[in-house]
Amino acid sequence: MEKHMRRWRIEQFGKQNLRLETVPVPTPGRGEILVRVAAVALNYRDKMNIDNGSGGAQVAPPFTPASDMAGEVVALGEDARRFAVGARVMSTFWGGWLDGEWPSHAVALGAPGPGMLSEYVLLPEDWAVAAPAALSDAQASTLPCAGVTAWSALVEHGRLHAGQTVVLQGTGGVSLFGLQLAAAHGAQAIVISGDDAKLERAQALGAAHLINRRRTPRWDEAVREMTGGRGADHVLEMVGGDNFRLSLQALRQGGRVSVIGLLGDAEIHASSVPLFLGRPTIQGIGVGHRRALEELARAAGHAGLAPVIEREYGFGDLPQAIDHLERGPFGKLVLRLDR
């Protein structure tokens, strides 16, 4: 095994301050595993953290970005028994959140926790999950944040089932995982986007209905029309601001809004009247625990889930990948460490 490795590091906020540096390969301590990273999936949160630290609490330079990786265990620390050398693993998004309610000691990877944009990473063994055999390393790397977020919203909390209707806003990683989960459970998906080409691609993945938000700004009314006046069972709210009001108005009686994204505004705006009349469940989704990732990994094999990756970049191409992330990819972007 090599004695030195490359990792991305940022000493000051701003993409221009990203540096690829060479440092010694770390040695695993008690209960830790050393993983040779094969692929790292990017999330919009990574761009926010690189820009100004707004992707989470207590984010401050210096740090190594990114939370989501897949790789191979190459060394074990004393008393580390969850995995054998050679095992394929994924990182969990939250280090220390294994199940149940979020514990106060949990830490998000990719700042303030350890970042995955490194040729080797050290993790406590409890912060990793076996990668699905049915998925490539690049595909597996997309599960910890985007995949678990969709799973937590629709399956873990939403109890998604056949015959329901799910509204998905945009065509990023979370929404496209939601689209595939809806299809796997026998539910129909309505996809909203301002890009006709992306809507066509979503239809090819199984979307039952499409709405161009630029031509149909009152998309909530379109959802009600598409559902025979009933409204949707689930809405994945990705935008914030005034869009939240439309999400509430698109729901059936007693439906569920999962608040996930802040692409438009960190605040959400709505009248209280739809709350009284519609009796919705409104739940914030902060990714999910390790058990959710383990269940999603099993489902990926059984249900044939295929994470949508728009492009794979080489490890040295992080700045270009961040630019692509800002433009809004269809699905996920992944950095491969064998390139």
Automatic annotation (TrEMBL):
State the signal peptide span.
none
Pfam families the record matches? ADH_N (PF08240), ADH_zinc_N (PF00107)
SMART domains under this entry? PKS_ER (SM00829)
What CDD domains does its record include?
MDR7
SUPFAM superfamilies, A to Z: GroES-like (SSF50129), NAD(P)-binding Rossmann-fold domains (SSF51735)
Highest taxon listed in the record's lineage? Bacteria
- Classification via PANTHER family: PTHR45033, ZINC-TYPE ALCOHOL DEHYDROGENASE-LIKE PROTEIN C1773.06C
Q: What is this protein called?
A: Alcohol dehydrogenase
Domain Enoyl reductase (ER): start-end pairs: 14-335
> What GO annotations for molecular function exist for this entry?
oxidoreductase activity
